[in-house]
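User: Please predict the structure of the protein below. I'd like the answer in structure-token form so I can feed it into my own downstream comparison script.

Assistant: Understood. Taking the following sequence of 296 residues as input:
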Amino acid sequence: MTVVRRERRRSRRWRPGRSLLVGIGLCLVGGCSAGTGGGDDAGGDPVAVLRGAADRLVAAGSSRARTAMEMASGGTRVTIRGEGVYDFRERRGRLTVRLPQDPAGGSGHRPITELLTPGALFMKNRGAGVPEDKWVRVDIGSLADGNLVTGGATDPYAAAEVLRGTRTARYVGRARVAGTEVRHYRGTADLAGAARRALGGNREALAAAAKGFATAEVPFEVYLDERGRVRKLRHRFSFAGQQRQGTVEVVSTTLLYDFGAAAGVELPGGGDIYDGRIAEEPGGGGAPDGRKEPQD
């Protein structure tokens, strides 16, 4: 009897470790298409689940969004934050983006209003010399990063479409985001693959990002609710820095909540768009950064 009890105790101690080692081995050999948390609780094959996450946002219609973009530059870690609404069916959003404080601690910049569409980014209060009542229009097709970084906030739908390129994914387990129970996944996505599977206007943008970033592989961490909707999504983008900075890492976080919120976004007319020369402002546009992320 003593021997039997000892064997049972040993078995209870050993099984979790063995399961973990087996899971790691599967990831190394097979690409980790299923999680070590696994089982039915994962909601299905993680790769398939995540590749369809953008479709479930379209089905949800709209939501409110908070964003944060973080980057270390010149030994300083800064954050650009955004908050607003997004219409996933119309592929349009409106964000108020706040640039980081200046070194003296002052705000230094007025908030930028951004209108997000598949083919263009509209910004108000962006660029020195632009009249207050005018918008700046940027053709997303002309941006090497497909506007995943340039605007200081990743378009929420484009962020979800990056998941269409999921190559490896692991179910981590249950968690909570802003009081909502969610499933937590980690994985990597391929931007070129995402571009091939993207719908409509994001194909060109994601294809540009696949060529413009230092690597087309994007590590991510995502939290889905019971309906498979993205509640929180964090990407790590890598691009070549200027002036011999080497590779710069940008962490972009998107938090989605209040699904079904009113999200009508009206685009400016031709007469409202500034067509003059724009001076660069420190800290605005280009790749941003951060100290904090959207609060759960």
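That's the full token string. Confidence is low (pLDDT under 50) at residues 1-39, 281-294.
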